[in-house]
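Record type: ASSEMBLY
Status: queued
Input:
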Amino acid sequence: MKISRVITLAVLAALAGVLATGALQAQTKEPIKVGMIQPLSGPIAAAGSYITNGAKIAVERINAKGGVLGRPLELIIEDNKSDPAETRNAAEKLIVRDKVPVIIGAWGSSMTLAMMPLAAQHGIPLVVETSSSSKITDPKTPGQKVVSRISPTSELEAVGAGALIPSLGMKKIGYLAVNTDWGRGAVTAFGEAFKKNGATIEAVEYVGQADTDFYAQLTKFKAAGVDSVVITDDAPKAAKMLQQMKELGLNVKVLVTGGSAWPDSIVQLAGAKAAEGAMFINFYNPYDPAMAGDAEASKVYVEEWKKKGLPWIGVVEGMRGFDAVYVVAKAIEMAKEPTAPKIMTALKTLESRGLYGLNKFDQNGQSYCNIIVTQVKDGKYSVVAITPSTKLWEMSAAK
Amino acid sequence: MILVVVLALPFVGVDDYYLHLLIMAGLFYLLAAGMNLLLAAGQLNLGHTAFFGIGAYTSGLLAVHSGISPLLTLPMAAVFTGFIGYLLGRLTLKLRGAYFVLVTVGFAEVIRLVATNWMDLTQGPMGLAGIPPFNLGTERWTLVSKRDYYYLMVVMAGGTLLLTARLLGSRVGRALAAIQSNESLAESSGISAYSHTMLAMIVSCVLAGVAGGFYAHYITFLSPELFGFQNTVTMAVMVVAGGQGMVLGPAVGSLVFTFVPEFLRMAAFYRMLLYGIILLLVVMYMPRGLVYYLRAILGGGAPEPAAAATADRSFVSEAALASGGGAALAMREVTVRFGGLAAVDGLSLHLGRGEILALIGPNGAGKSTAFNVITGFQPADAGRVEFDGADITGLPPYRIAERGLVRMFQRTSVFPEAPALDNVLTACHRLARTRLWELVLTTQAYREEERGHRERAQGLLNFVGLGGKAGEPAKNLSCGEQRLLGLAIALAPDPSVLLLDEPAAGLNAVETEQLMRLIEEIRGHGLSVLLVEHDMKLVMGMCDRVMVLNYGVKIAEGTPAEIQRHPEVIRAYLGSGEILADA
Amino acid sequence: MIAELVQHIVNGLIVGGGYALMGIGLTLIFGIMRVVNFAHGEFFMMGAFFLFTLFSLWGVNFFAASVLSVLGVGVVGAVVERLILRRLRETPIEIPMLATVALSVIIQNAAILIWDPSPKTIKHVFSPLPLTLGPVHVVSIRVFAGLVAVALIVGSHLLIQKTRIGRAMRATFQDTDMARLAGVDVDKVYMFTFGFGAALAGASGALLGAVFWVYPAMGDLAALKSFAVVIMGGLGNFLGAIVGGLLLGVSESLGAGYISSGYKDAIGFVLIILLLLWRPQGLFGKKVLPR
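Status: finished
Output:
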């Protein structure tokens, strides 16, 4: 009873204290605040931590060079627990309490979609770094007008990889995708791209976000006699899928889309043997700075990543945060003052060379990044083909 | 006072962020209050978020596809959600405790996967965007500002508070608590566990549907994450840590546990770890919930003044007076088998009006099984049970009690947590004539009925000699007092036939004397009594007839004097090592 | 066709062995202590992380590391019982349940802070090449995992049936008060039971962590599956947990193979709902009559 009394009082005191500090929080003029919402707990915490680390590297580099408009950037990172309602809470806090003029986020499409109406209501620009759903940049979606997206949609991925498809020799395809907006969207986009090239999709199987065992789906593919498997999922699951294909004696061509799995992560997670020959669609090559839009930035980013001892497999995801911060910094620079409407206007005409390629935004707020097809060859990273972001911009201009 | 503060909040510098959190707290309050209602009956629905999601999707989809105003789709969603709750209830409410918990977890998981995979309906994981906000059909009458939504939520949360306060503070709340505390006793007092838990289930699902509909038109975007287990855990935390079973528990819980995680945003990467630690500390050191301890600290919660212990120890027994002639209770050729063994084998029994019949026999003779068959707790494999000339075989216990056949249990004859008066009041349930809506609106008729029942309960306590202990929780009473309270509980539903299962067990000689006098007096009111008893002084001293069972078969029947001389009875008792001679 | 069917069943049985191991731990804890352990998935995760730390980071021998990891989880379980659950023994069922919910939040987020959330693999000592038995393929690590699961199940059975502590556990399961009167140290039984149940979850996690991969939220799905297993088998029923685990493994494998993989995780619960229509007390549960 005594302890419970102490705790009750402590809880009450804490509540009162926080309310008071919240009300008294003085607005220091110095740093420019940038909001960032990522999943930092829950099943996809790994991706969120890579991206926040990438963003931190960018902020450190910018601040080391004197910041933006002579003021340092301050990243305010909020956790959304990979939940749309939590994302909304975090966005409310960033907009109302921290008064950030711009938000980077929020990894998954459903989380981004959940905060878009609110951002639109307050006129806060959103820089979307990962989400792939085409809905986000669809003018019919409420809040689309505040979105500037640097990550590609699945459709864009399919277009970028499209030229390569005939040469892959994939005829009878089993499609294995994570049962989220990302996986579902990719199945539609790549399904069409493959069909256009005369391939047939023999079976589409969805897997849960936390699944680890894919024997059932792969056994089905084997029975259907597929000659290739297309995967849309994150690196750990793609690695296990590859491994389990070998275990079941399903030795076929593999293409992994989505940009989060790449040769090094799969070699590390599945072993070189299982990974051998698998192909990936990536948006960033950490080995060849020249392939990025800004070679210098790419070099610094990779060096910093290594220096901080961050997990190497996360380097291709971390760049999403890095680029998002640079886009925001550039926009503030152009806007001349860190206010939401000015930043929003600046984003419309901004051009920023970054790790994704050339970041600028079409009338729907979509940017076109590099699409790089990579492969594990002799257990090593190798590049098969690249469609540079500049080419995609030209293609879209021609249309 | 509180109302003024609540209404004034948006005007005294509470910014949109806090208003948003207050709205979310209100939303979770609707959910937690519903969960609390069902938990009052001891059923924890850990699939509650499924109903939240169903309500949200129903209202969202209707509004998107039909263009109907959210003001109409929200009630439609609430009704539909209530209907789904009814269906799930039919399937699962017979389950108890951990089974119910785990099955509801599973239900939510199934619904989540349906919402994820049924693309044509829900757009699956792509999410449902572009849901209209609350409006009256025109742009001008559309709710936009936080303040508008806040007031709408205040209305909803206030309504929920009133509704749940009325339900929990009335005979429905007593019935739910009784079901949690001692379901068999509740059933045998004429309370249907099924229909009360179902009522709680439907109300809680309707509330969840309302919360879901509100969420859909407030956030304007839905995705299957709504059905995630984390959401239900949040609700459960709010109910249990806030104070389960208490009207204000979920309200305080939802406020605290909406704001705490938001405050913890200061802790950055340690946020969820700290949240877990705070939760654990609250559970460990305040297991009764915040409200309970807040009340203790704020000095409130003075004990209710006990009802006046009048000297009036009378009670009315209309049922017994109203019944006609013939046998009160009869068993005809009843057989019950457990596996291959017949616990009761072709047993016939006849209890006349105003008669006291004792059923005796060694342990395992089938006495308790016979009681369970009569009162509906155990189905008969053959034969029938008749009460007042009507066949009652296979009726559920509460239906049998409703007809006026009530039993007192051997071991668990009280509701241990509740005060003595509430124990008896709870058992008056079957006498209630007012309807649910009268109860919710607290009409004059309802208030009078409550007062009447309170008087009856006090009278019965006086009758058994516990008039002065009305406010005492039953578990604090002595063993003998608990038996007497059990007798008062059994009399509360106004039975015409009373079944007593070893009423004198654990009583001392003085108490047994008192009990015998009471049973005599009860018979004097016209009731018939069937009792199982080992205390031979009681059996031989006051029963009109005695019936002896052994191995499920009747071996003798007659007056006490005849039985004491019966050779087979003596053999049976000697065989089992029990002695008949102390009578 | 037949080959595919056999492959599905073999896959299901091996996964089901892991489910059974999880289920036994959960069902023992519930049967004896009346605690629904929502931190079960976190014990599973801990087993995997301990093995990863000992074997992959510190270079301890794989088999020694496995044993140490399982024991380690057992000790954590016993400590949790002693410090937290013992205080809540007389409270209604939701209270200890909520405490385990809080515990699972704490453990999972502590793991994020300690090991960072990125996925880890345990590069075990087994060959990655499949053993081919006619048309059916199995890898040796899975065979190893399956055999260890069987050994642990049999071992647990013997422990409960043949040892003193097992006898005490059975007595407590039957009637706690009677056991106490008969001289059983109920506190010790509770502590041992929770530690033992946690260790079984940890063993399952270490095995499956080696087969799959290791990350802080890996216990969420495993816990959900073990709930399904114990309801199917009847809460507190040892045999039921084994049958439930294997049944769930095989039916998921067949369901995902022949019906729809999107609904794979729902199959167990749909089975349960069907089962409960027929037997409300689970496959092996008993009805209780009032007295």
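Annotation: Chain B touches chain C through 51 residues (CB under 8 Å).
Annotation: Residues 193-219 of chain B form the longest helix (27 residues).
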